[in-house]
From TrEMBL:
<protein>
    <submittedName>
        <fullName>ThuA domain-containing protein</fullName>
    </submittedName>
</protein>
<dbReference type="InterPro" id="IPR029062">
    <property type="entry name" value="Class_I_gatase-like"/>
</dbReference>
<dbReference type="InterPro" id="IPR029010">
    <property type="entry name" value="ThuA-like"/>
</dbReference>
<dbReference type="Pfam" id="PF06283">
    <property type="entry name" value="ThuA"/>
</dbReference>
<feature type="domain" description="ThuA-like">
    <location>
        <begin position="23"/>
        <end position="215"/>
    </location>
</feature>
Length: 218
């Protein structure tokens, strides 16, 4: 099984997320799940070259953060992602991926949500409690756990998905992990993973391994 991890650089990077370091940790975890892993930071070029790929992992940030929407993505890259989704490639979006790939028309619908600057937020990064709320292959053998992370809240969800984990903030429950099938694709969004400390939690590593396998129907 072949997995590609997209690590944000250039317009897909930001000052807050150490994407290269989290990309390395993701690579280790997904390799442990039985994948042949490649990591690339040339996001748009890589999305034009997805033939034969089993799993796409997006670990990239918001390309419009500095008002750069006019830059756009190459048509060949948009077509490459669309073709891979049509053939049923598995997808795992991690943390800031929910605000990424904004120039790709199918991305938000595929991942099942979007970060809205006027609504979405997170409490200060720190030790936090993650609650598992559903039985699913992605949560197999994972119980509630503690993790050092930045917990996204008030995300705008799109379409149907099975919420698998959540946290509580300001008296409300906020999804942190969901899985969905859209078209022929299996998709998981994992809102954890702000920095490499998130992957020190063995439960989070297991969730990522399970998510990768489920997304490719392994």
């Amino acid at each position: 099984m072949r997995a590609l991890i997209l690590v944000g650089s250039g317009r897909y990077a930001d000052p807050w997320h150490p994407l290269a370091r989290t990309g390395d940790r993701l690579g280790e975890v997904i390799a442990d799940a039985g994948f042949e892993v490649r990591v690339r930071d040339d996001v748009d070029d890589a999305l034009a070259e997805l033939d034969g790929l089993d799993l796409l992992v997006v670990n990239a940030a918001d390309p419009w953060r500095n008002g750069e929407a006019a830059v756009g993505a190459p048509e060949r890259s948009i077509a490459g992602l669309d073709a891979a989704l049509e053939r049923g490639m598995g997808v795992l979006g991690v943390h800031a991926a929910i605000s990424s790939l904004r120039d790709y028309p199918r991305w938000a619908e595929t991942i099942g949500g979007v970060w809205l600057p006027e609504l979405s937020m997170h409490p200060p990064i720190g030790q936090a409690h993650v609650r598992i709320v559903a039985d699913h292959p992605v949560t197999d053998d994972v119980a509630d756990f503690e993790v050092f992370d930045e917990l996204y809240s008030r995300l705008q969800r799109i379409g149907d998905a099975s919420v698998l984990a959540e946290h509580e903030h300001d008296g409300r429950r906020h999804p942190l992990l969901w899985a969905r099938e859209i078209g022929g694709c299996r998709v998981v969004y994992d809102a954890l993973g702000h920095d490499e400390r998130s992957y020190d939690a063995p439960e989070h590593r297991r969730l990522v391994r399970n998510a990768a396998r489920w997304a490719v129907r392994d």
